[in-house]
Amino acid sequence: MPTETPAGETGINDVVSIEINGSVGLIALDNPPVNAASHAIRSGLWQAVETLQQTDGVEVIALYAKGRTFIAGADIREFGKPPLDPWLPELCNFIESASTPIVCVLHGTTLGGGLEVAMSCHARVALTGSKVGLPEVTLGILPGAGGTQRAPRLAGIATALDMITSGKPMGADEALANGLIDRIAEGDPRDVALSSAKDLLAGDLPNRKTGDLTAEPDPAAIEAMRTKLAKSQPLLFSPHKCVDAVEACHLPVRDGMKEERRLYEECMASPQRAGLIHAFFSERAVTKIPEATATAREINSVGVIGGGTMGSGIATAILLAGLPVTLTERDQDGLDRGVATITRNLDGAVKRGKLSEAGRDDILAAKLGTSTDLGALSDADLVIEAVFEDMGVKRDIFQTLDKVCKAGTVLASNTSYLDINEIAATTSRPQDVIGLHFFSPAHVMRLLEVVVADKTGADVVATGFALARKLKKIAVRSGVCDGFIGNRIMTFYKKAADYMMMDGASPEQIDTAMRDFGFAMGPYQVADLAGLDISWAANKRRAATRPAEERYIPIADRLCENGWFGRKTGQGFYIYDDQGSRPNPEALAIIDAEREKAGVTPRSFTEDEIVSRFMTAMISEAVRVLEEGIALRPIDIDAVFLNGYGFPRFRGGPLHTADVIGAGELVRRIEEYAKEDAYYWKVPALLRQIAETGGTFAEMNAKG
Ligand code: 3H9
């Protein structure tokens, strides 16, 4: 049914319109925010091509999109729902077989199904600065609308394999060099569509059906990719299927697409697909917070207090985002160390191609200031304190900041555990005080916990989220508790690991089991990396309030008493030297001695039991964090673990995993484990309720 559209355009439906301009039939797509190929886009586009093909005088069709991008992919929100005709593969084949030549104009990010539509057109023009890619693999699937068949025909098998198995987009220049597009142009999508259509008609642009081309056979590239993936991604499902699909490109295009469809369906049915798509939406949903409508304060200058690893990493992240930073330390030595760390971090960014040498020199010369006086921060819009975890020291700093900073400065603490309410109460402006908890290395890790205290102003919360956007980080809102969302849950599940270690599992066995589950590192590798002295300090702080019923495992403390703090001292649970790392026999001897002292007869653990206890502990504390309102929704917890704790992305996060295991099974496990330790293993009320009502955490997410 045609709808109202701007002059000259006829609406095919709400999101697709056509316009006749001489011999050119223009098709415009308008489906904000990213022109996803929804059912309306697919059916509208089909109808638009059909209409224009049958329109007298139209000799060429040009397809473009309005808004910020050409089609950024199939509409992921439709996945899992009953498919509605026309399917994207059919639409692509229909476009390719059109009797009237079709050119498309790409701008923004033409991804997945968007690039598949483009590759089905007879010519492609991309606007300067645009990107193209086939990121399906990051969602646990493969390009399912001919992408695995047409990309190798245009770009060659080796390039197609790289782009499809990595999911990484490429710039227009690279796409042109690889043959994925035919031209780069400047201008407005509609204007370029019009001029490109005329060029296609005049023979100034190639007019080809991609499916008619053949891809040069390259069995070596296929084998090399299989070998690489077997090593680098042994746990993932879809990258391997991507290779199988590309291998079918020697078949006629329609036959190859049948094989592609079969493999696509296998990926769609895989639980990894559900986990990866959950991860994608979680990372976007976390920005939906109660303070989202408040206006963020403007941040043009930042002060960072503390030049240790954390403070220097935070300063680096902010400098890389283009903001000036004043770093303060207690003395010149501290400042020198901080500047040296920042310089090393920036050198690393240059090496990784994230920054030019001139850019680094400019940052060091013009953007980074230093001082040993907190008074130097009087004019900063935001100050982030990153000194060691001592409430007394933090109080002194915030009292001074209260005196020296201008009105309206956002005063943030990077504390990992301490009470932001208590810190805020030391100032006369608690509304300006917030927790900004970065993860080390702060210029690399994507997570930022924005910790909202009782009196934090809504605009200050919005400022934390705006800062995260500027730093390209994922901000998650957390309430105040010991350790906030992430460290609180980690402290709890780390105990489950320690109990298994005490009862008979070795640290290496536990680490291996969790790596096989998909974690980047096991808990003892993480502890060694973070520094055992850090948790030792926290253990001492908590000792006075530790309930008598709690089973306490002092093994890591014993290691620290020997001066073994993990990686930084060359040994902890593992030994670190030129040959890499290996289990520390002296740590194993300490474990044996502690077992004997406690009268524990070690027993054996299977990998399944280790994973089960570890994950059940993680999930039960995650549910308590949710019950107490520390996290807004299950997805906030999932986003924290995916981005700050190396949680396997294909498993979607702890509470997505809880849905996979099932609340009933989790309750059963906790009750079983509680027979040995009823203090540690308790069923959270919310988990029991979900188990009894047959609900899921996904339903809680959907309610928001
Ligand atoms: C595919 O194509 C399969 C085919 O091969 C086969 C089919 C048979 N669908 O990221 P942003 C939403 S699979 C639905 O914040 P940015 C997103 O949730 C697809 N919704 O913006 C958010 O919504 P909200 C392959 C989508 O500018 C809003 O758009 N394509 C989709 O930072 C803005 O997103 C991909 O994997 C979608 N496809 O980044 C591309 N994409 O405002 C996935 C986005 O309600 N998308 N939304 O939270 C991206 O990588 C980024 O969104 C993009 C824009 C780079 C496009």
TrEMBL record:
Does this entry carry the keyword NAD?
A: yes
Which keywords has UniProt assigned to this entry? Fatty acid metabolism, Isomerase, Lipid degradation, Lipid metabolism, Lyase, Multifunctional enzyme, NAD, Oxidoreductase, Peroxisome
* Ion transport recorded as keyword: no
Its Gene Ontology biological processes? Answer: fatty acid beta-oxidation
- Domain of life of the source: Bacteria
Query: Where does this protein reside within or beyond the cell?
Result: Peroxisome
Which CDD domains does this chain map to? Answer: crotonase-like
What Pfam families does this protein map onto?
Answer: 3HCDH, 3HCDH_N, ECH_1
| Record-annotated 3-hydroxyacyl-CoA dehydrogenase NAD binding domain positions | 302-477
Recorded GO molecular functions are: (3S)-3-hydroxyacyl-CoA dehydrogenase (NAD+) activity; enoyl-CoA hydratase activity; isomerase activity; NAD+ binding
Pathway(s) the chain acts in: Lipid metabolism; fatty acid beta-oxidation
**Domain 3-hydroxyacyl-CoA dehydrogenase C-terminal, first and last residues per copy:** 483-576, 610-694
User: Which residues are the signal sequence here?
Assistant: none
Q: Which reaction does it catalyse?
A: a (3S)-3-hydroxyacyl-CoA + NAD(+) = a 3-oxoacyl-CoA + NADH + H(+)
Assembly behavior: Monomer.
- PANTHER family given in the database record: 3-HYDROXYACYL-COA DEHYROGENASE, PEROXISOMAL BIFUNCTIONAL ENZYME
Protein name as it appears in the record: Fatty acid oxidation complex subunit alpha
From which lineage does this chain's organism come?
Bacteria, Pseudomonadati, Pseudomonadota, Alphaproteobacteria, Hyphomicrobiales
The gene name on file is fadJ_1
